[in-house]
Amino acid sequence: MNSANNQGRLSREQIIRGAVELADEIGLEPLTIRRLCEHLGTKPMSIYHYVAGKEDIIDQMVGQVFEEVGLPDASLGWKAAISGRARSLRSALKKHPWAIPIMESRKKPGVDILAHHEAMLATWLSTSFPLAVIAHGMAAVDAFVYGFAIQETSLPLGGDDSADGNLDQASADIVAPLDPEQYPNLVHFTMEYIMQPGYNFGDSFEPGLQMILDSVERLAQMG
Q1: Please, are residues 83 and 209 in contact by the beta-carbon 8 Å criterion?
Q2: Is residue 2 part of a domain?
Q3: Residue 105 in 3-state DSSP?
Q4: Is residue 21 assigned to a domain?
Q5: Residues 82 and 126 in one domain
Q6: Integer angstrom CA distances of residue 122 from 29, 81, 119, 127, 220
Q7: Do residues 45 and 86 both lie within one domain?
Q8: CA 209, CA 28: separation in Å to the nearest integer?
Q9: Dist. CA 194–CA 173, nearest whole Å
Q10: What confidence score (pLDDT) does residue 171 get?
């Protein structure tokens, strides 16, 4: 339970931090004002003194996650800058998987979120690519990062390095009952690649990201 025990020690920032902490533990759907109050050690009226309700809290929670995402470095080339931002976004989404479906869906994005998107668009526009190509590139990169994060956080027992053994076992449990004659490719790929020592789903992130950026560049060169 958080140490904020009364309205005098409570603040909007503490409420949002507490909500993010709680969502990291239980997810977004089960997060209610009552459970947040229990987490913070306070009462609903104290919460409502600072926020309008759950939707207001969620807007601010998304803003806090965006604050953890690094802005593209303007001193780097566009590929390096966008790659750095993509890595940072992936890291934040792994830490806060509840945020994946709502990061880009808020109807009232805060100034911090708008500033983030402004910086990203400035990086893309620095390429002087046609606007259509920039639009395709932005969509493809965001879809890749968010989609990768969904897969990564949905893997059995997680997809990080510490879970490799568990992932190997989960793969073995899935493949073991399969008939190799009926599913030869699935069995072959899983046994010869997924279950090999050192396999980590996350290793596909960098090659996938660079393939997309290289394709965007080729598309621009095609005119």
Answers
A1: yes
A2: no
A3: coil
A4: yes
A5: yes
A6: 35, 11, 5, 9, 17
A7: no
A8: 28
A9: 13
A10: 65
What is the model's pLDDT at position 74?
A: 83
Residue-number span of the structural domain to which 28 is assigned: 7-65
Provide Rg for the chain, Cα atoms: 21
Give the pair of three-digit tokens for residue 55: 């939707």
pTM for this predicted structure: 0.85
Length of the chain: 223
Nearest-5° angle of CA 205, CA 83, CA 132?
105
Q: Tokens for 87?
A: 């890595």
DSSP annotation of 177 reads: T
State the virtual CA torsion across 198, 199, 201, 204 in degrees, nearest 10: 90
Residues 166 and 190 both lie in one domain: yes
Query: What was the pLDDT predicted at 113?
Result: 86
Residues 198 and 91 in one domain: yes
Any domain includes 98: yes
For residue 167, what pLDDT is reported? Answer: 58
In the chain, the number of structural domains is 2
Identify the segments of the chain with pLDDT beneath 50. 3, 5-7, 157-159, 161-162, 165
Rounded to an integer, what distance in angstroms lies between the CA atom of residue 150 and that of residue 219? 27
List Cβ neighbours of 54 (8 Å cut-off, separation of 6 or more): 31, 32, 33
Residues 136 and 180 in one domain: yes
